[in-house]
Amino acid sequence: QLVESGGGLVESGGSLRLSCVVSGFASGFTLDDFAIGWFRQAPGKEREVVSCITRSDGSTYYADSVKGRFTMSRENAKNTVNLQMNSLKPEDTAVYFCNAEVNYTSGIKNYWGQGTQVTVSS
Question: Of 17, 30, 66, 115, whose CA is between 20 and 30 Å from 39?
């Protein structure tokens, strides 16, 4: 189960911190075993990847549109992945979704959160 929080309304240039709590995964697995991604979907547009962190070495990837402004981090003790968003722009307005993928012995499982709305006013 994935639960996002932290969305809201902010003025252009402001900041927000999104969090995604990962729970209910199989015994013996930790957050390090998950590849985690943040996606967003604006009205009338397709869902796009914003940032992701790998399961192997924790490397992070950022879309060009957010590079230098967004930072993704993992808090293993809290089973939480954060997305710090600075210098927000109106074009960052979207519903932000957390996605997690894990390779269980039974196969790869992929999960989505319910999404959290981010609105940036100009």
Answer: 30
CB 109 within 8 A of CB 101: yes
Give average pLDDT by consecutive 10-residue segment, the chain, 122 residues: 95 98 85 93 96 88 98 93 97 97 89 97 94
Residue 25 has what pLDDT? 81
Calculated CA dihedral for residues 63, 52, 83, 71, nearest 10 degrees: -60
From CA 19, how far away is CA 6, in angstroms rounded?
6
The candidate with the shortest Cα–Cα distance to 7, out of 88, 63, 99, is 88
CA 122, CA 106: separation in Å to the nearest integer?
48
Q: Which of 44, 34, 36, 49 is CA-nearest to residue 96?
A: 49
Q: In this predicted structure, what is the pLDDT of residue 111? A: 94
36 close to 60: Cβ distance less than 8 angstroms: no
